[in-house]
Specification:
Elements (H helix, E strand, L loop, with lengths): L1 H29 L2 E2 H11 L2 E8 L2 E8 L2 E9 L6 E11 L6 H8 L6 E4 L5 E8 L6 H22 L13 H8 L23 H6 L18 E2 L4 E2 L11
Antiparallel strand pairs: 1-5, 2-3, 3-4, 4-5, 5-7, 6-7, 8-9
Length: 245
């Protein structure tokens, strides 16, 4: 009788596990972002957003922004083409010369993107993010800005002899030095805690984030890096941005 009860308990546990997995799949299936809301943000930020094609369950758009072109890929669910379950960007850089080790180093500095070399040694930069929770325009805009940051970092890697500062035009740097110098006084610099030996965040960062304790805005899972783990995967908790908004 004891063995029978044990077996019944095992089957009940397996049944509960299957039901739990089914509920998780159901929640994932319901997670989507409205296509119209995504395109509205695109049209607000970018110079041009041109529809290209729809194939299988993906919508393709060509995006132009300040002279740069890339592709947006909106993946919809099986039932409704206007419910986007994943979005992504793909950017192509030709006429460059980078080695596999260069690409490996570049990927360590990207937040939500991955760079690869194609057969002709051109760079393909792409980023794909699954829809999670309700669509939030501010968070989505932050993800787009993180994508832009990865593009800038790729430019820096492609043209290493040019610093990012030299890519600015006009008197931008002169004005920055004369009117936007942020003095990092000794008390604002990171200091080692006497207790645990961890590093404190500068007070100027706390004020910039609008919080007395900057740690409350930095993602606790990745410590503000945007990446986790040995292979530096994009942090799921903050979408790879390093900040919780």
């Amino acid at each position: 009788m004891a063995e029978e009860n044990s077996g019944n308990g095992l089957f009940r546990n397996m049944g509960d596990l299957q039901k739990g997995n089914a509920r998780k799949r159901d929640r994932r299936a319901k997670a989507f972002w409205p296509q119209a809301a995504i395109l509205s943000v695109f049209n607000h930020i970018y110079d041009r957003v041109d529809y290209l094609d729809t194939e299988d369950n993906r919508h393709y758009y060509q995006i132009s922004f300040n002279g740069l072109n890339f592709i947006a890929v909106l993946t919809h669910g099986d039932q409704d083409t206007k419910k986007i379950v994943q979005y992504g960007f793909i950017c192509y850089f030709s006429g460059v010369s980078l080695s596999s080790s260069d690409i490996e180093q570049l990927n360590r500095n990207l937040h939500i993107s991955i760079a690869e070399l194609d057969e002709q040694q051109n760079i393909i930069l792409f980023s794909f993010v699954e829809a999670q929770g309700q669509f939030d325009e501010n968070r989505f805009s932050l993800l787009i800005q993180t994508w832009h940051r990865d593009i800038v970092m790729t430019f820096k890697w492609v043209v290493p002899e040019r610093s990012l500062s030299t890519m600015m035009s006009g008197k931008a740097l002169t004005y920055a030095r004369d009117h936007a110098d942020n003095q990092m006084a000794a008390e604002n610099m990171a200091e080692e805690n006497a207790g645990g030996g961890s590093m404190q965040k500068p007070a100027i960062l706390s004020r910039f984030l609008g919080d007395k304790d900057a740690q409350r805005k930095l993602c606790p899972d990745c410590g503000g890096r945007g990446k986790t783990g040995l292979f530096s995967r994009s942090c799921i908790n903050c979408y790879g941005t390093g900040l919780l908004i």
